[in-house]
Amino acid sequence: MAGLPCGPCQRKPRAFDATRAVWQYAHPVREMILAFKHGQGFGLAGFFVEALIEEARRIEADCILPVPLHALRIRERGFNPACELSRPLARILGLEHLPQALVRERHTPRLAGLRGRERLQTVRGAFRCEADFQGRSVMLVDDVMTSGATLDEVARCLRQRGASRVSNLVLARTLKHSGPD
C-alpha cells in the first residue's frame, strides 16, 4: 500500500522518514547507473536528473544534500555521482544545496556483496554532519538504495544535528536483498 513503510522498515524503524525511487535496480537501469557512477556514462546525468524531478517534487524539503563519498573515492572516480544529481535538482526545485554539510570521515570498503548486518556495521560512524539542521526537512540524494544502511546512517547524523524530517531520493532501489537489516 502506498505511503506505508516496507516490511523490514516496519520491523526495524529507520532514521529516515521515507524513500522515493524512480526505478527498480535491475537491467537495464543497473548497467546505466553503474556506467554513470564509474564515469563512462557521465552524459546520463541530465537524463537521470529529469527522471528524478517528479519524485523530488513529492518530497517536502527545505534543503537538498548529496550522500557524500570519502575523499579517496572521489579521487578514484573524479566526482561524486550523488552531487551531480543533487546540484541541478536543487536549482530546479529552488532548494538550498548543501554538499559540504556532510562529510564521509572514514573510507569504507565497497558495500556490494555484503549482507545487511555487515553493511550496517561497515557504515556505522562513517559520517559527520557539519551543519545545524534544527527543525529542517532534508532531502538526501543518492544513486542506489540497496539495504538502506548508508542512507540510514546519514539520516542518523542529520537527526543528531536537529533535522525534523529526512527523506531519501534515489534513482533506483533493490526490492529484494539478502540478509536482515
Description:
By secondary structure, the protein is α/β, with parallel strands linked by helices. It has one domain: 3-Layer(aba) Sandwich (Rossmann fold), CATH 3.40.50. It is about 35% helix and about 20% strand. It has seven helices and seven strands; from the N terminus they run H-E-H-H-E-H-H-E-E-H-E-E-H-E. It has a five-stranded parallel sheet with strand order 1-7-6-2-3. A two-stranded antiparallel sheet has the order 4-5. Strand 6, helix 7 and strand 7 form a beta-alpha-beta unit. InterPro entries: ComF/GntX_DNA_util-trans (IPR051910), PRTase-like (IPR029057), PRTase_dom (IPR000836). Pfam families: Pribosyltran. This is ComF family protein.
Properties at a glance:
181 residues; alpha/beta; Rossmann fold; five-stranded parallel beta sheet; two-stranded antiparallel ribbon; 7 helices; 7 strands; 20% strand; disordered C terminus
A few lines on this structure:
With 181 residues, the protein is of the alpha/beta class. The protein is 36% helix and 20% strand. It contains 7 helices and 7 strands, in the order αβααβααββαββαβ.
